[in-house]
Structures are given as structure tokens and as C-alpha cells.
Design goal:
The complex is a heterotrimer of chains A (332), B (377) and C (319).
Chain A lengths: L8 E14 L2 E14 L3 E5 L6 H8 L7 E12 L2 E4 L5 H7 L4 E4 L3 H4 L6 H11 L6 H14 L5 H4 L9 H13 L5 E5 L7 H18 L2 E6 L2 H7 L2 E6 L2 E7 H6 L4 H9 L38 H5 L4 E5 L2 E4 L6
Parallel strand pairs in A: 3-8, 3-9, 6-7, 7-8
Antiparallel strand pairs in A: 1-2, 1-4, 4-5, 9-10, 10-12, 11-12
Chain B lengths: L2 H4 L4 H20 L3 H4 L1 H15 L2 H23 L8 H5 L2 H4 L20 H37 L1 H16 L2 H22 L1 H11 L10 H30 L2 H8 L4 H38 L9 H9 L8 H28 L1 H6 L4 H12 L1
Helix pairs in contact in B: 2-4, 4-16, 5-8, 5-16, 8-9, 8-12, 8-14, 9-12, 10-11, 10-12, 12-14, 14-15, 14-16, 15-16
Chain C lengths: L3 E13 L8 E13 L3 E5 L6 H8 L7 E6 L2 E2 L5 H10 E4 L13 H11 L7 H11 L16 H13 L5 E5 L7 H18 L2 E6 L2 H7 L2 E6 L2 E7 H6 L4 H9 L5 H6 L30 H5 L5 E4 L2 E3 L5
Parallel strand pairs in C: 3-8, 3-9, 6-7, 7-8
Antiparallel strand pairs in C: 1-2, 1-4, 4-5, 9-10, 10-12, 11-12
Helix pairs in contact in C: 3-5, 4-5
Classes of the chains: A alpha/beta (332), B mainly alpha (377), C alpha/beta (319).
Amino acid sequence: MSGPQFREPIIEVKDLYVYFYTYAGVVKAIEDMSFTIYKGEKFCMVGETGCGKSVTSRALANIVPSPGRIVKGKVIYYRDGKPVNMVELSEDQLREIRGKEIAYIVQDPSSALDPLYTIGYQIVETMIDHNTVKDWKEGYKRAVELLREVLMPDPEKRIKNYPHELSGGQRQRAVISIGLSNMPRLLIADEPTSSLDVTVQAQLLELLRKLVKEHGLTLFLITHDMGVVAEMCDRVAVLYAGNIVELAPVDEIFKNPKHPYTMGLLRAVPNPQADIEKLEPIPGTIPNLIYPPPGCRFHPRCPFARDVCKREKPPLIEISPGHYVRCWLHAQ
Amino acid sequence: MSAEEVYEKKILDRFSDALIAFIVKIITLFKKDWAKKNKSRIDEWRLMLYALNRSPIGIAGLVLGLGFVVIGIIGPWIAPHSYDFSYIMATGNYQKYYLAPPGTGGAILGTDDLGRDLFSLLLYGARVSLMATVLVLPIGITIGIIIGLVAGYYGGVVDEVLMRLTDVFLAFPGLILALAFSSALTQRIAFAIARSQLLTSLVSALFGVKPVDALNVAPILSIIVALWIVWWPGYARVTRGLTLQEKNNVYVEASKALGLSSPAIMFRHILPNILGPIIVMMTLDIGGVILTEAGLSFLMGAMVKIPDWGAIVQAGSQYLVQGKWWLVIFPGLAILISVLGWNLFGDSLRDILDPRTRRSIEFKIKKRKKRREGEEQ
Amino acid sequence: MPQPLVHVEGLKKYFPAGGFLKKIWVKAVDGISFDIYEGETLGLVGESGCGKTTTGRLILKLIKPTAGKVLFAGKDITKLRGKALKEFRREANIVFQDPYTSLDPRQTVFNIIMEPLKTHGIKVDDPEGFVTKLLYEVGLNETHLYRYPHEFSGGQRQRIAIARILALRPKFIVLDEPTSALDVSVQAQILNMLKDLQKKYGLTYLFISHNLGVVRYMSNRIAVMYLGKIVEIAPAKTLFENPLHPYTKALLASIPIPDPEAARTKPKIQVVGEPPSPINPPPGCRFAPRCPYAKDICRQKEPKLKEVEHNHFVACWLY
């Protein structure tokens, strides 16, 4: 499994199952999930609400929230080339990796910041925790640099501000700088711009691109917006109801989509650059993952569904180099 | 794995299912397709009871609380003796029955200074406490809810005026207000009862006393009236807060856009949605009323004739130094158990009525884990 | 020129924002004028806080305007009261953004749809049949009649909200971001349904959204709002192919395009910073502080909406 230019893996997910044990029943949030993220690439996961994309991102650092549990599978993180299984690490070892080597940017910047502390304090705190800086004085100096790097206006003033004194975009910049503070190797961004306005979103996406390039970071971006995917990513995994249904380089996904869901998704988004007479929606709704449909989980909404789709679950197979599809149409 | 497998039914669940089936059957007797139209609601009830079944403390509370209610209702009938029966008068044996300790003769809990059977007094007293809660809470709550809803819904000046009024009432020291009130009211109420045949029989029926003693209930009735005045402001405040919160939901604006009147929005839409926390508060308050009523009757001095728990404690307290503990301990225990029961039940009701906590409680997760690991091996 | 169904003139809404001695006002909507013609969809786009939602509510008299008037079929609705207001509520309605709180959680679908009818004293012979027919109209069916809102997905709830309004046979509907809480696959279903219903019943829409792709798909004409002002109004195609106002241009350049090749080559017009607070909007043109073309006059005098080509209005000193 490889994109042409990225050979060295940084994280490898193998046969991952995550279930949520709720009163209503067991939610099979993720099943049979395998993918690899290579060093230095921008990897995207796209899908709709409840498809499991956020859960996947949390499983990577083994922070699946209760009542969810990783039931099965491995998350292998290549720590300086040495593979470690995140699922089996102790809490202490995980803490060392989280926030230092794997950093998170969440969707809602206001909930990611503590309203009681200044931006500067919160940036320095993570660095002190992971011993990246000697003392608070050095930390504050570094924080100003970080804020300058994320293009925060007036960084010297802003480190003394409290979160509520900043605008939404500035808050998200602060969150990004906290994420960057320990020079992580993998940056996981979970819908980093969906709570922001488009003009601000464009600025932040540009910033993320710049940071990834300059620091040689690996970006794992989660989004529901095909536009963001097209602008940001090298490779894309399309998720549906807890399964990867298609995984391919970004151009392949847009020009040569193979899975009916990917095709439907692309046709259902109104493109602002084109006059569209009629959108072609995907009929039906997302299945309840307590009782997922048997066979292919997309078959109840699929225009090409055949008997085999209703009975058996299709495997994820490589149909051309680097292009994987989970669909019986392409399985023969 | 289907939901049925995940979820193991307890014996209590079967019982609660049967209970709901019975209720549904009764309703369908009157409204034919009710069950069909309310399937979701019935499922919701079932879930609530399942949640209750998994809360041992809640069940214990409910048993104690219902026990209080049942004894309150039937107490006067099952009591071995009437509240005005005295062993001393009946047997003439003053020596034996003056402050007799538990177990003396027929008196299993002992007797008081008049030779009355303490066990019977407590049973009669349960009725008095029950009536106090039944008469205080609905009226106090109704006033509070209306004021809170109106204040929260309209906001602005209306809110300001109503809430300052509420503040004024909250600022009164409730107990002293009630004391002052009841001492002023007692005579009038007694007078009213004495004059009206109907009132006399009503009071004697409700409080389980003989018609001749109806007059003596007046102090308790005046306490109840006083409690109306101190009880509503708390509900007004809570209701206002809940209304303000609920008002943010778009359905309120949607109802307005559809042309609904303000009272319709308040009472048909907002009220049912905020009732949960109010019911919880009411449950917790049942204990509060019992306690306050007992406290007030204790403070107001002995009402020798009427078997009120607080009054019994008061009358008995003077003999405590002589080591006659039962006159204080047993009524005290009665108060404690009934208050505790409702408080425990109220606490678990809070979790049960909130759909979020109800669903997310990870019932029996441990058991399932074990089972699943077993499967994998 | 046909008569407009909705005519908005000099509409203003200032919200009090505290202040002890001198009151501070948030100028959410600050003097806007536009028309909506019968049977058309007017799109209203802008970023959060630009006043587009407030505009929708003002037009329906869900909040009182500070100044200005709104004519609906010739009548000034800002002056309506009592019975006339109730009549207006029948003819004009709104679909809200958040389908999760726009339905009373304690009512069944049947009750939710019947309630407005009862409120307006409309009698139907067979209520169950009537509601079922409406449900079919919005893509639901009779099995949903006696269910509660929490049993439905976001898209289905939005369908119920639409059915509830359709029951009153309205003429005009404000669609306030009706799909922004929904997933794209469901969004397309709802948008298509709204278009079909418009054709079938001759409805007039005001479509409020921040999603330019959706607005283009839905609207005949589009108005762009920035900080309480309309900066540009034009037919949908014209606006996207020949945007005139620098803000519109920036907005269009900022949308991520679902096409990786085009994304790599598209021109990067990036505006700096974020919209200033509507409490103290800058004098002159409100976009001036972020505008790459700002001149001196932009910072001093406010530009008026001007028709620079047929049906294409723009408020900018460049034209």
C-alpha cells in the first residue's frame, strides 16, 4: 500500500474494530479498518456524520472516549523507526507520545482552550509538561515565536489574552500553535475549519499547508467537505458507516471514483463553479450502526446493489496501484 | 449481537413490563387505538423503569417513600388502638402504663405520659404528615410554576417585577414567617371549622381524627397555609431558569412563527419539556415538607390531642432526661425514614428522567465484557 | 416588472449590548433594501454575524425592527397586530437551521403537523389521511405518524418541519440554512425536495446560507451581506461569473472547490483578518479595512447600492 513518493510509514492501522457499548446496544463504530499513513504526506479521511472518522482519529492515540473501546486490531506507530502498538502501551507511555509526538487540533477551538488561562500560559504549559523547554521564561519566548508562525496578529500582546478575547479564527490559530509547540511528527486535525467562516477557513488551510511543508509534518486531516479534501490532501480514505469504502490518491478519487458511494458523494455536492440543473442525491439515510445492514453496508442506498452485496461483505482490494475499493462491482 | 442479547432482563424488569402492559390495557379500554399511537411513549416508560430497576438506591427510596404513603393512607385503620385510647383509662393501671417502655402489655412501642399507645400514634401521625405534603406541595408548586413560566417567557419588565417579588418572599425567614402566620391563623381556622359541619367532617376524614377533634387540627392547617407562602418562591426561581433555557430551543420560535399564542407556547410546549426537573424537585421536597411540618409543630408546642410526629417528639422530649427514649426515637425514626426514602428516590429519578443520562448509563457493562471475552477465547 | 411579493426598505435592527451610561448597540442589520418577486428564490449569503439570520427573522416579524419597513403583498407587516398578524403567519413561514431543536420533543409527528391547523382554525375531515398525504409529500410515510422527533435523523426532522409549514399552504418561506446541519448526501435530497415543492406550489423563498455552492444551486438572484449591509445583488450566474464587489470576489476565491486540479491552479485572492465586530463598525465602507483595493474615500464615505449593469447592484466606490 503506497503512494509513489511516500515510502516510510508513520502509522499503520491493522484490522481495527471499535465498538461503543451503549444502553441501546453495541454501536459498531469501526470495523475492519486498515490503512497506513506515510511520513510527510497529507492523508485525508472524509465521510459523513457518524461514519467513524473522528473515532478513528482518537483510536490512533488510544483515546477512544467511554463507552467506546478498541475491541480488536493494532495501531502501530513507528517511533523513530521502531514500531510500537498504541493499543497495548501503558497510560504513561501513551502520555509521552500524545501531545508531543502526535498532536491534535479539534473542531471547536473554544472548547479546546481553558477559559481561565491566557493563551500564552496554555501554550507554555504543554511544553513544560513534555520538557520541551527549560523554564517558563524560555517557554513564553518560544510561544511568541509559535504564534508568529501561525500568523497570529500581534503575538506579543496575544499571549497575554484570554481565549474569549480572541476571534474564532485566532483561537484556532492558538490551538494550532499548542499542537505545534512540541514539534510533533504527526498532526491530527479533526475538522479544524468547519466552525469557521470561509474566508478564515481559506487562511487557515493555507497555514496548515505551509506548516506541513516547512516542518516536514505528517498531516492526518478529517473532514466532511470534499472541497477541503481536494485542496489539502495527497491521499484520501472515504469512510462509510465505519468502513473504508475507497482509498486512493486524491486525483484518482475525484477523476476516477470507483465506489458508488464516492461517486454519489461527489455528485451530491453542489459545485459553486458550475450551473447545476439537478443534484443527484444519494437516496436513503446512514444506517444505524447498532444494527448495520448485512453484507455491504452501503447496499440499501446503492443503485448497483446485487444479491451478493446483501449477503457478503466485500473486501477492500487494490484495483490499480494505490487505489483500493471495497465493492463487489470491482471484486472480480 | 442484537440488543436483546446485550441486555439481560432482571426479574424486576419482567415485573415492570407486566405493570406497563397492565396500565396500557386499562387505557385501551377507554381509548381504542391509544397503544398504537403511543408506542414510542410506552417504550420510553419501559426504559425509565429499566433504569430505575438498575438503581438499588432508587428502588429502596421508592419502597420507603411508597411505604410512607401507604401507611399514611391506611394507618388510622390498621392502628391497634385509636389515637385517643389510653391504656391508663382503659385498665386504670397508672403504674404500668405511664410512660411504659416498648413491649409493655400490648404496647409494642411503649406508651406516652397519657398512656396512649405510641405505635398507634405513629400510624395516625403518618396520615397527618401525608396530608401536609399533599396539601402544601401542589398549591405551592402551581403558583411557583405559573410565576416562573410567565417571568421566564416574557422576560424584561415582567420578569424583573415577578422575580423581585419572589426575592422578597425568599428573603423572609421562612420558619419565622410560618410561625407568625400560623399563630395568627389558628384561631380563625378553628372558628371556621367549628361553624361549618362540612368542614368538620372533611377535616376529620382527611386527617383521620374524630369529628370532635377536628377543631384541634387547626394549628396544623395553619402551618399548611403558612407553608404555601414560603414554598412557591423556590419553584418560581427554578421554573424561570428552566424556561429561559428551554426558550432558546428553536421550536419556541417556530411555534411563534406558526401563529401560536404565548399561553399555548408556554403551557403546551415549554411546560411539558421542563417538567422533569420540577418533578424531581417535588420528590425531594416531599421530605422537606414532612420535616418542616414536624419542625413547626414541634416548635409550636404540644398539640396534645392530635397525633403529629413533631408534636409527639416535642411532648416526649421532656422525658428524655429520665431515660424514656422511645417517645423521641420512634417518631424521629418515622420522620427520618420517610424523608430519606423520598430523597433517595428523587436523586435516582433525576437520572431516570433525563433522557441523556438514562441512555448513557452503562448498565451492566461489566457483565457484558466478561461474556464477550469468554466468546473470544 | 412584476410586483414584488416582499419589499424591504431601509430595514435596521440594533440589539442592545449593555453599556452603563451610554448604551452600546450591535448593528446587526443596518439599513438594507431589496425585493423578492413572486415564485423566485432570493439567496442571501454572508459569513457568521453578517446579519443574514436577523434579516430573515425581521421579514417574518419574529423580532421587531429598529427602523424601516417590510411590505408583504403590499401590506406593511411591521404594523400588523392581532388577527392580521395571525393571517400573515399563515402565509409566510420559516424553516430553521437546527432540526434538532426546532421540533417539540414531546409531541408526535401527527401533533406537530396538526397543531398549526388547529391554531388557525382550519378543519380537515380526515386528519390522519391529511397528515399522511403531507408526509408522503416530504418523503416520509404513515409509519412515522405517531413517532417522536428523537426517533428521526436530522434530514427527516427537517422534512417534518417542512411538512408542518406546508400544512398551512403558505406563499413565502424563509429557509434559514435549512441544510447546513445535514450531511451532504442528505442535503442534496432536501434541496431537491425544496425545489420541487416550489415548482408545485408556486412558493417564494428567501434562502439564507453561508454555503455558496448551495446558494448558487437554489437561487435565481443572490444578495451578499457583509456586516449588516448588502454589498452586492445580482442574478446567480452573473454573481458567480462576474463578481464585482471585492468582498464577493474574496468570498468566491475562498471556497474550497471539489476538484483537485482546479484547486491547484485557482487564483488565490486572500483577504486578511476577520470581519470586525458589528458593535463598532468602521466608518465608510465596512469592508475597507480588509479590502486590497481600498482608497481614501472608502474609509470616509459609505458607498450606496448602485445598478452597474442590468439587475446587478453593487455598493462599492470602485464602480
